[in-house]
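Reading a protein record of the kind used here takes little practice once its layout is understood. An example of such a record is reproduced below.
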Amino acid sequence: MLAFWAGLDGTRDWTASVPGMDNQPPTRVASIGRVSFGSWHRAFDSPAEKERHEGFWPGFRGPRRDNRAASLSGKPLAVPASMDESLSGARLLWQRTLGEGHAAPAVFGTRVYLLDYDEDARRELVRAFRLSDGEELWQTGYPCVLKRNHGFTRSVPAVTETSVITLGAEGHVMALNVADGTVRWGIDLVNDWKAAIPSWYTAQCPLVDNGTVVLAPASTDAMMIGLDETTGKLLWKAPNPQGWKLSHSSVMKARLGGVDQYVYAAIGGLVGVAAGGAEGSGGIAPGTLLWSHPFSANVVAPSPLVYGNRILQSAGYGAGSVCLEVTNEAGEWRVREIARYVPSAGLASEQQTPIAVADDLILSVQPKDAGAWRDQLVAAGPSGEILWSSGSKLRLGLGPYALAGDRLFALNDDGELFMIRVGREGWTLLDRRVIIEQGQDAWGPLVLTASGILLARDSTRLVCYELWEE
């Protein structure tokens, strides 16, 4: 999912990075020690805002976790008439300097929430900003000694009307009061759940579903856990019989075989775990392991993409992708492998999670090992077969992208934003504009709200633009 790995554009005079080059061992399988959640807290006196902006992008990949701008009702957005086919009217509202990393923000109402790291103080922080002007409101954190490894933080907060939930680089989960940043509870996935932190730190983004915080320790103790949002109390846990390991992927909620479930891609394979709830549970207890399917990859960053009764899972470093069909026949779960591709033969992704425009149209950017398709925007059919590509004149790299109506907003590694009209028949480049001057490693996921607010970051800066007015 998130930006942080290695291997940059081969045409540049840069050295590809691999685990260990940034003072990080290939794996981290040791207790990291307890932290004092909320031992650091600071509130700021902010001047009155001159104008007011609101937005709704409450966590990883937005309101529906599908990387598509949507109204509060969840309806996908059609770009308003006030947004023409040019980016010249995009207005920079503010920018902020951050600690080195790739963690993207979340937006809830008038506020922006971000997980950050203060390298000088050796402190992991949750920071709250005002959406209209970027004024910092408060920050809450704890001591945490990290070594630079393509930055530090990578995870997007999950925000509700009452809580901000974050997952730190070394597996520290902290729940804060959304209003003032005071601590509600905290747990440690390593010490409490025996999780093994992967190379390049943790990038999993928490999921909050109807008052349940869903996380995947992917350890000998549990594949997945559900915690009470208010208290942190354990509500259920799902087993991990294969012993698969924690990846950089995030848990996605889906409805497959008539049952609501949480889908996760661990190092080793994919699993589906019953979500429970009054509706959609099929009488199955939450935390029940419904199905699993092996998928071999050393590094898994994209999250499972669920569309219809299918799942597309990608990974970098030559792993390619697999397309699965999941069915439930009278309580018997079956997983059928529809297709499997190396990166040069079908849709794949090293870092970002592809977007399902429809059940038969998927957008992605091919990884650097995709041969002639390297770094190109591609569209694929329902089984991951390539329908078209952007060609060698438009290469995007490892950067993020988000969809509003039929317009894809994509950011390249250097902080240049592309506005592209996309459809099943092809693509049209509408405009391009540098939004982060001299950007470097602009890999963190985009925020694109229905109110026209776009937030993007590179390794050390966060920018906020108004693309259109509601």
